[in-house]
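Hi there,

I know you've been waiting on this one. I reran it after we fixed the sequence typo, so this is the corrected version. Both the input and the resulting structure follow.
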Amino acid sequence: MDVLSDILDTVELRAALYFSTDFRPPFGIQVPGFERAARFHMVVQGECHVTLGDGSSIKLMPGDLVLVPNGSAHLLSSDREHEGVPLEDAFAASGFSGKGPFLLGYGPESSGCKMVCGHFNFAQGADHPLLHAVPNLLHITAADRAERPMLDDIVRLIVRRMFSGDVGMTASVSRLSEVLFIEVMRAGIAQAPDLGRLMNAVTDPHIGHALSLIHADVARHGTVDSLATAVAMSRSRFAERFRELVGVAPMAYLAEWRLQRALRLISGSAVPVKVVATQVGFQSAAAFTRAFTERFGSPPSRLMRDYAAS
């Protein structure tokens, strides 16, 4: 079982918005926060400062890219002293319609900061330790890309497609960018100990096997004992090692993942509540409804109606 793919499928990682920029200095754009989003900015020409609300800042040079995984508000600017304007105001002032480059300023083209900017969405209520393990900024330099040929190839393809204007560009870039997200996460392990720990969990011969079993059939294993036996570990050592690598106890992980999988089933089909309950390992629809309502704030039947009506 490809655990990482199952996680990203279940939390519904989707590429949602792309545009290229041509910002002539001085410039400053305040990008608003959005809870269920991850954004990336990739510099093709020029340079750009990226500053978070806590004051932390990095400078992007040509070939660099940054991922802002947790939906944090941030500032894109030609220098750290420039306060900038809200993104929506900048769109309105420039007349940007979503087609062609997002142009700001009137300096020479050679001075412009040309970027490819992308936006990923996650499903409402989506959660996993992986999403909490990523730092507020992941900065991948041109040198980092050179050490990772697959990541570098994807970046080059995205840039080529974005600036080509060809038919099918949006669909092509969207799919490439979902691969980019995974490769940036892999490349960012050195910057994020918690992310590295979780990646180690997926590849660990025992804990990785347990995660594969959970993700392959979330209803099958309902106890620490059954999982420990399946991966040939003692109960105590398995529980200790699982918590050490994943960050939560095995049963806490299983309970949350059952509800995440249920949320995905409810949002993507008209399956009856009792069938969803059985598929994710609950003994009764009533127990499932209580757990689901406590976790997401609404009973599954109401969410089903909301999704059907949308």
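Quick highlight: Residues 266 and 303 are 7 Å apart (CA to CA).

Best,
R. S.
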